[in-house]
Amino acid sequence: MTTPTPPSAFPDVEAMIVDILKDDPRLSGAIVAVQAPAGFDGTAAAVFVNRRGGAWVGERHVDQPLIELEVYGPTKQAAHVLANDARQAVLAMANNKYGTNLVTEVEEQDGPRWLPDYLYSAANRYVTVTKVYVDVY
């Protein structure tokens, strides 16, 4: 009998998705990170990747994180286009291997939806939430 991988051995799904988004030419003009850089005011093209929960199935070595993309743009329309580009890149992860991790499925939970940002009053922001199924080897 094998011992299930402990949750502390999760793959860093945020970093994996940041790398995937940075490699997508449609997002080449955007900031892609897990948090806003110093001086960010919400008006630049940006995609921030955050794990917002999920579940670990130890005996199957499967991580099922909920990934939130906060997408900003200089206009509402630009933010919407960028949100759809980021969304397509994440949905395309299904059935692909990244390092030692296999993404078996990607399931959109919510989005993209317009969500005003109270931290950055001039921001144009869309938010998406996606469940990513990652087999951990």
SSE inventory with pairings:
Layout: H1 13-23, E1 31-33, E2 46-57, E3 62-73, H2 76-91, E4 96-98, E5 101-114, E6 124-136
Parallel strand pairs: 1-2
Antiparallel strand pairs: 2-3, 3-6, 4-5, 5-6
Rounded to an integer in angstroms, the radius of gyration calculated over CA atoms is 15 Å
What is the beta-strand fraction?
A: 35-45%
Number of DSSP helical runs: 2
Spans of at least 5 consecutive residues with low confidence: none
Q: What structural class results from the helix and strand content?
A: alpha+beta
**What pattern of helices and strands is seen along the backbone?**
HEEEHEEE
Please give the alpha-carbon distance between the first and last residues: 16 Å
Helix content: 10-25%
Give the overall form. Answer: elongated
Largest sheet: 6 strands, mixed
Biggest sheet strand order reads 1-2-3-6-5-4
Q: Indicate the mean pLDDT.
A: 91
Count the E strands: 6
